Structure formats: C-alpha cells, structure tokens
Amino acid sequence: GENVEQHPSTLSVQEGDSAVIKCTYSDSASNYFPWYKQELGKRPQLIIDIRSNVGEKKDQRIAVTLNKTAKHFSLHITETQPEDSAVYFCAAPDPYNQGGKLIFGQGTELSVKP
Amino acid sequence: DAGITQSPRHKVTETGTPVTLRCHQTENHRYMYWYRQDPGHGLRLIHYSYGVKDTDKGEVSDGYSVSRSKTEDFLLTLESATSSQTSVYFCAIRLRGATYNEQFFGPGTRLTVL
Known about the structure:
The complex is a heterodimer of chains A (114) and B (114).
Chain A: E1 4-7, E2 10-14, E3 19-25, E4 32-38, E5 45-51, E6 56-59, E7 62-67, E8 72-77, E9 86-93, E10 102-104, E11 108-113
Parallel strand pairs in A: 2-11
Antiparallel strand pairs in A: 1-3, 3-8, 4-5, 4-9, 6-7, 7-8, 9-10, 9-11
Chain B: E1 4-7, E2 10-13, E3 19-25, E4 31-38, E5 42-51, E6 54-57, E7 64-70, E8 73-78, E9 87-94, E10 103-105, E11 109-113
Parallel strand pairs in B: 2-11
Antiparallel strand pairs in B: 1-3, 3-8, 4-5, 4-9, 5-6, 7-8, 9-10, 9-11
C-alpha cells in the first residue's frame, strides 16, 4: 500500500520568510496530493491540492510542486505571517482502494515568529 | 464544513466501558471515514464506509467497530475502552461526485479513557 513520509516534523521561521515542507510517497500510481492545515484545537482543513497531471499549483502565498519521477511533493509558503502557524499534513491516496482512502504524513508543526 | 457534525465533542470515560461516537452529515455523501489523531502519528484511518451497511477496515481498526444504517450517520464504537484509545477522533467525508479523494473533516471528538 501507499506510504507517505513528511519532513521536517517542526519548522520555525521568521515572519516574512518562506517555509517549505516536503513529502515523499511510495506508489507511482497515486494521482492526487492534498495539503491540510490544522490550527490548534481545530479540524484539519484542505488548503491546496495537486493532481498528477500538473507540476505546480499556486494560490496566493501558497504553492505546491510535484515531482512524479522522484515521487515527492512540497508545500511552499511565501511571506509567512503569524497566522500561518499551524500543523500541516500532506496526504496521498491509496491508488488501489475504491473507498477513497487517504494516507497522511506525520505532520509538520510550523511556527512563524513575529 | 460540508455539513458534518460529531457528538459528543468531549467525553471522559473509564477503562472497560463501551463508548459510541457519532458522525452526522446532511449532504448525502456516500463515503465517510473515522480517523484518530495522536501526537507524532498524524491522522490514522480506523474504518471507513462506502455506503449504507458497507464498511471496511483501516490501518488501526483493532478494538473498534462501526455501523452505518443510514446515509447520514456513521457510528464508531469502542466495545471496551482502553487507555490507549485516548485520542482525538475525526470523522471525514469524501465530497459527493468528487473525481479525486477530496476529504473534509468534522470538528472532532476528544476522548479520554481513564
């Protein structure tokens, strides 16, 4: 089955700097890669996703890149702000499962210092 | 929030007691999921459902059972709660008609087993 590894587990940046979180996946048949943001005490929320037919997707200050050959995808946050502080999760689907299963990375705790 | 609610939101119980958590959705989504979230482990799938009376196991299903007798409700039962089942439990749905595995989460239930 699919396996997802996420790094780093914690990340501290100064406000205004960029942050990058990287995930690797194991199954080349996976075709959808979402990113979730979870603020303290809240539910995970889908912030951006990428399908396997594109290499990059942007939404304002966040972007996701996908390298299918290397089987990794990354979340990029530019001009970080204190409200970006949260835990971020990547995920990949189990490509052989008809039930829509997602396999999640272990999470990255991002801290943006003012 | 994709019309997802969870009840109770918080529960404290004792080892050996049965516990049932409820996930309720109002938008006729076919796929529903139960996850548990623990520090360092991200989100791990317990069970999922792909229709009324259709359920399957996830990666951490031991000690848990589920039922789905109607589309809107997905119940998670701990037959005899143990301290290792202290966790935050999230229900999720896959959007009706989604091409990819987009999932949206409920607000979560914090369960403490003493």
